[in-house]
Task: structure prediction
Amino acid sequence: MAEGKTQNNIWPLPKFYFSVDIGARTDISFQEVSGLDTETQPIDYRHGNSKDFSLIKMPGLAQFTNITLKKGIFVNDNEFWNWYDQIQMNTIERQPVTIKLLDENGSPTMIWKLKNAWPTKIQGTDLKSDANEVAVETLEIVHEGLTIEMNEYSG
Result:
C-alpha cells in the first residue's frame, strides 16, 4: 500500500481553535469571530455593436463584510473601548488584524489578514439577574482588505 495522505485519512479542521492578533497585541482570546467573507460586485456591460443581445458581466469593486469579535469581559480591560474612543472627525488608529485557524499543535493552517481595521461598533454585555453565564462584549470592526493564506497541513 502506498504511503502518504489519501482522501480517506484527511478530516476537516475544527473551528474552535483559533487566535486573533490586533496591531501589536497578539493572541487575544476571543469566544467568537464572524464575518470573514468578501464579495465582488458585478458590472453589466454591452458593446453598442455587439451581435449578442445580452450583457456581459465584469468584476467590479470588492466589498468586505464587517468582522464581529466576541470576548469575555475582564476586570480593568478597557482596551477596545479606548480604541473606539479615539474616533474623531475622519481619524482613527487603523490596525492590521490577523485571524488564525490552528491545528491540534497550535500551528496556523488558515490565516485571514485584514488591512487598516478600526472599530465601528462596540457593545457591552446584557445584564440579567438570573443569568448563569459569562459577561461578553462585542467588537465590530471594518477593514479595507482581506487576504487568506493557507499553510500546508503537517498533521
